[in-house]
Amino acid sequence: MQQIGPQRDSAAWIFQTWAAFVLSIGMTTAGIVNLPVDAWIKGFMGMGLTFSVGSTFTLAKTQRDLHEAKRLASRIDEAKVEQLLTQHHPLK
Question: Which of 3, 13, 17, 45 has most Cβ atoms within 10 angstroms of its Cβ?
Fold first, then answer.
C-alpha cells in the first residue's frame, strides 16, 4: 500500500496568501472609509465586507473538511480491498 504523507505548502506560498489577504482587506477597508457617502452606508458596506470574509473562511474550512473525509474514506476502502486481495491470493 502506498503511503501518502501530509501535503506541505512552501513558506513563499504561505506568505503570498497572507499578503494577498491583508492587502485585499486593507485596501477594501480604505476604499470604504474614503467613500464620499453617509456613515450608515459605510457601516453597511463594512458589515458586508466582514460577513463576506467570515463566510469565505467557513466555506474554505467546510471544503477542506469534506476533502479530508473523502481521503479518509478512500484510504479505508483501499485497506479493505488490499486485505481482501491478500486473503484470496490466487497463487497460494
Answer: 45
